[in-house]
Amino acid sequence: MAIGFMAIFQMGAIALPLSHLFGSEALEYRLANAQASTAIVDPQSLQTLLSIRDGLTDLRSVIGVAGAQENGVHEWAGLLARSSDEFTPVNTLADDPALIIYTSGTTGDPKGALLAHRSILGNLSGFSHSHDFFPKEGDKFWSPADWAWAGGLFDALLPTWYEGLTILGYRGKFDPEKAFDLLQRYEIRNTFLFPTALKLMMKAVPKPRQSYQLNLRSMMSAGESVGVTVFEWARDQLNVTLNEMFGQTEINYVVGNCQAAWPVKPGSIGRGYPGHRVMIIDEEGQPVKAGELGEIAVNRFDIHGELDPVFFLEYWRNPQATKEKFIGDWGCTGDQGRMDEDGYIWYQGRSDDIIKSSGYRIGPSEIENCLLRHPSIALAAVVGKPDESKGAIVKAFIVLQPGEKPSLGLEDDIRQHVRSRLAPYEYPREIEFVDSLPMTTTGKIQRKELRLRDSIGKN
């Protein structure tokens, strides 16, 4: 996959990374919408692709790797053996398209974010800061982030290779103890771990230094709010100051921390990385006052008045969605936050996830991080449940630690745990214990699925 990226960029073509986890419908929609002409697949993906191939009118060639063979499928090794050793890379301009990465489709069909060659370079300043001025001598990178997503590509593979350094590739389901083993065995110095992964690692191995010899120099986390509990655990037990980062497929690596350059405020996602213009705005696109809740936005022009290089070009074949992404020159992220007087941003959740209860606007992240500090809780997700008198109430879906069992007494203890630490209106009035939480392939909690599940159950 990584070799394919290098070849495609040098050809001047457009790369379309797709996860091997996609089923037939998800795969068909993206291939058809992107008008893909060539597919490079492994055995795990080949049969799924062949089942939908007749409907993909733009798909001309299928190349199989690692033993993926069928009639009509070209063999990678055979093509390579017949190829020339000489190739002249195509000259590409900064604004020429390089990648289409599809968003998760939380609101409607997934959208293909078309990214330019400049995005790869524009991403580097944020990456370097989030890893305390990467690279340094001895640095070696690993992340469980899938290379089919912006997180795996722009936050791991491409910047590491740009610097000519080693990145560890491991294909397997995430397991917290396996993660510790990889960090130790391969002497990893730099890592990007999703908050969900860190929470699982913290719960599975609370005191890792008793069992593992780790030599981490830098750690970045993004995708959800990390929270104070995980931050303190990483500092005390992993001996590393965690740099939280914020970005999205369309506008990556724009906000974050760099403990080597400025103080980290635990619980904050940091401040705008050098060069970017970041603000909290209201629905009219106007900046809000310090401490007020609003949407995290990034200006399409950087501090020098030039177009910010991390911005996507457009949504593929979707001009209306491209237009709706902006209010004037502000690129809207769809994420809510507060900015303090020092310019640090405190993430509050997706705009769709904000709970409006009795006149209060409540972000789920703060409550989830508070719940995680309860010793009986392994994972937690918070949503708003419709209520006639309050508009909505806070409902918590909770995965318990192994050996813990649901009870009315535990519910009361959990409520008191939150009530004593947060505002009175933030404690969960309803609690449901579940075996697992719905997650995206990038490790984000799918609160939309929880709201839908709750609605179906009620009906």
Structural features, described:
The chain is an alpha/beta fold. It folds into three domains: 2-91, Rossmann fold (3-Layer(aba) Sandwich), CATH 3.40.50; 116-349, Rossmann fold; 354-458, ANL, C-terminal domain (GMP Synthetase, Chain A, domain 3, 2-Layer Sandwich), CATH 3.30.300.30. Helix content is 29%, strand content 22%. The chain has helices at residues 2-11, 24-34, 43-52, 76-82, 117-122, 124-130, 150-162, 176-185, 195-204, 227-237, 319-324, 364-372, 408-419, 447-458; strands at residues 38-41, 61-64, 74-75, 97-102, 112-116, 141-142, 167-168, 190-192, 218-221, 242-246, 255-256, 271-272, 278-281, 294-299, 314-315, 326-327, 330-339, 345-350, 355-357, 360-362, 377-387, 391-400, 430-433. Strands 7-6-8-9-10-11-12 form a seven-stranded mixed β-sheet. Strands 13, 14, 16, 17 and 18 form a five-stranded antiparallel β-sheet that branches. Strands 1-2-3 form a three-stranded parallel β-sheet. A hairpin with a 2-residue loop joins strand 16 and strand 17.
CATH superfamily of the largest domain: ANL, N-terminal domain
Radius of gyration: 23 Å
Helical/strand content category: alpha/beta
Number of domains: 3
CATH architecture of the largest domain: 3-Layer(aba) Sandwich
CATH fold title of the largest domain: Rossmann fold
The main pleated sheet reads as: 7 strands, mixed
The strands making up the biggest β-sheet line up spatially as: 7-6-8-9-10-11-12
Q: What sort of overall outline do the alpha carbons produce when their principal axes are compared?
A: globular
Tally of extended strands? 23
Q: Tell me the β content.
A: 15-25%
| Low-pLDDT windows of residues | none
For the terminal residues, how far apart are their CA atoms? 45 Å
Number of alpha- plus pi-helical segments: 14
Average predicted local confidence, pLDDT: 92
Q: Which bin fits the share of residues in helices?
A: 25-40%
CATH top level of the largest domain is: Alpha Beta
